[in-house]
Amino acid sequence: MNRRFLRQALPFLTLAVVLAATFYVQPRTMSYFGLNLMLQYAVPIALATIAQMFIITVNDLDLSIGPFVGLVSCIGATLLLDNPLLGILALLVLIAAYGAVGALIHIRNLPSIVVTLGLSFVWLGIAVLILPSPGGKAPVWLKALMGVQTPWVPFPIIAAIVIGVVVHLALMLSSYGVIARGAGGNPKALTRAGWSMLRTKVVMYMLAGFFGVLSGLALLGLTTSGDAHVADRYTLYSIAGVILGGGEFIGGRVSPLGAVVGALTLALAGSFLIFLKISPDWQIGAQGAILIIVLALRALVSYGEQKR
Amino acid sequence: MIGKLLRQPWVFSFGAAIAVWLATIAYTGGQGAGAILTAAFSFATFTIIVGLGQMMVITTGPGNVDLSIPATITLSGVVAMKVMDEDSGRMLIGIVAALGAASLVGVFNYGLIRLLRIPPIIATLSSSFLVLSTAISYGRGIRIKPPEPLAEFATMQILGIPIMAFAVLAVSIGMALVLSRTVYGRSVLAVGQNSRAAWLAGLNVDRTRFLTYVLSAILAGVCGILLSGFSRGAALNMGEEFLLASIATVVIGGTSVAGGRANVPGIWGAALFMYLLVTMLNTFGASAGIRLILTGLMIIGVIVAAGGEEQR
Asked: What are the tens digits of pLDDT across the range B146-165?
């Protein structure tokens, strides 16, 4: 068996296993509405995971994506609703801020973990200033978009496929994508070849900001009201999603399709554990166990790959 | 002399702590200057204990970080309170049980990292989920008070300085000596600078990292015991704030995120700075949102001022 192929197929196999197990435990989920209900929150998680993936591509880590998604949901539920033009402007400023942070991290050669850690406080603070307690209202078009009933295949699945394929084409098959991943693989070689590391980092950070904005808006369309703390867990989800999807922390080795599949797996695992009716005490522990099992399998596969 | 002092990485964090403290007492007109310091030393000690462990882990090289500290604090606090059961005669066995549970977490963490080759961030994150579930399940609905001697030790003061601060000072000096004078400490630095070179030089890289993860877990355990003594019982969310705090103090304190360079005094400066900063913003009457924003900007400001790593 081709180990490399197996390694790339592993995220998809994991998703298939978790999906099959869910169907087995609760056969009623094997329907249009069942899948729609279980997977709808996978869309914002997948978008946040893609955002995290862009940062990981250039060997950094974003600990602020969760609060950032929360901030976007707050802006969406207030400013974007009352004054669409101003709302869009605010979101663009946020994306520009992400780019500026990328530039700062690169120019001063700062540890991204600490800068984004500080940034997470900033996002949360702004969000709390805008919406001290959960409230506001999602714009009608957002609610309509997230609640759309597509024929045959539920909307979350179509959305996930579109997100995965578009980013895959852009990052894995375009020539700029090669440079972006090269920035994580070998920054020195990239600089010697005449490419600007600064520009690459800024672009990747802005892409992360852009997908963070999409994630916040998608989440707002589902929850229908804004909340500064709504996405606090997304930071961990997004990192776990990238890794589950076959990405690695260093070397620009990432996979957009894998990341989306990883996010779907995480979202599905939550429902699966609820259907299993295990004690709520162990819900979070079971999630940890699933992560460990999948990564153990991957270690097994990669071990064989290295030995050859 | 002054130039040399200014180049020390920990000067920034102490400078920032003093500046924030001065700004606070300037605002209150000197009132409560001592009380603020007492409180700062009380609360900062908990951050310093886990910060020391996190510092050792981060020093063993890029990518090494312990995200299971909060869960380990909670587990240790719950185990300690439950085993002691408000009986001061059972204090010792409670401490042993809590530290035993904590060191098991450390062993498990490194097992995941080494045997399953899981990146430390994900390994310690996944294990923290399991540990937290264990703590929740074991400590279901408990509200057990700590035995009197433990509570007394955690809150006693001498001349306005908590006795705990002295104990942690001794631990910190011990840690600094371990780093500079023992084979283990030098191995941690060497492994962090270049693990392959350390391995070629004949150092036992695996054992060094293993001991470091266990050490970090044990220190988190100590923090859990003291914290439940200080706040009169264990709570399931008692470790929460220490995830960000432990990482932030290490890095603001001048320890290299790329590994290989540790800084013990900086942990003290950074922990005091973080506590005094919140106090200052409270004194100024800032709203929750403003407080969060300024805290974040200050963390970023300090790391920008302290500068990044040189290219390697």
From this structure: 898 898 898 888 888 899 99
CB contact under 8 A, B247 and A295: no
Q: What is the pTM of this model?
A: 0.85
- Nearest-by-Cβ selection for B127 from A286, A288, A302: A288
Residue range of the domain that includes B162: 9-306
* Tokens found for residue B112: 């995941």
Residues A119, B296: C-beta atoms closer than 8 Å: yes
pLDDT at residue B61 in the model: 86
Segments forming the whole domain that contains residue A92: 9-20+36-301
Size of interface A-B (CB pairs under 8 A): 148
Q: What is the CATH number of the domain that holds B251?
A: 1.10.3470
Any domain includes B3: no
Query: Cβ contacts (< 8 Å) between A292 and chain B: which residues?
Result: 112, 116, 118, 123, 126-127, 130
Cβ B309–A111 below 8 Å, yes or no?
Answer: yes
Using one digit for the tens of pLDDT, what is the confidence trace for A266-304?
888 888 888 888 887 887 888 888 888 888 888 787 766
Q: Which of B116, B243, B312 to mutate to test the interface with A (most CBs of A within 10 A)?
A: B116
Q: Which of residues 92-111 of A touch B (CB under 8 A)?
A: 104, 108-111
In a domain, A3, yes or no: no
CA nearest to A51, candidates A165, A128, A188, A163: A163
Residue A70 in any domain: the answer is yes
Q: How many domains does chain B have?
A: 1
A173 at the B interface (CB within 8 A)?
Answer: no
Q: Is residue B149 part of a domain?
A: yes
Number of domains in chain A: 1
Q: Is the ipTM of this complex over 0.90?
A: no
Give a yes or no: residue A31 inside a domain: no
Task: Give CA separation, A83 vs A72, A77, A79, A87, A90, in Å.
Answer: 15, 11, 6, 6, 11
A293 lies within 8 A of chain B by CB? no
Has residue B132 been placed in a domain?
A: yes
- Segment A75-79 shows an average pLDDT of 94
A291/B287 touch (CB, cutoff 8 Å), yes or no: no
Decide if A186 contacts A193 (C-beta within 8 A).
Answer: no
- For B64-79, what is each residue's pLDDT tens digit? 999 999 999 999 999 9
> How far, in Å, CA of B17 to CA of B21, rounded?
6
Q: Do the domain assignments include residue A26?
A: no
Strongest mean pLDDT among A96-110, A259-273, B117-131: A96-110
Minimal C-alpha gap between B286 and chain A (Å): 11
Pull the structure tokens for residue A233. Answer: 């867990």
Find which of A121, A124, A233, A284 to mutate to test the B interface (most B CBs within 10 Å of its CB). Answer: A121
List all residues 6 or more positions away from A93 whose beta carbon is below 8 Å from its beta carbon: none
Residue B247's nearest CA partner among B61, B109, B47 is B47
Asked if residue B35 belongs to a domain, the reply is: yes
The string of DSSP letters for A107-124 reads: HTT--HHHHHHHHHHHHH
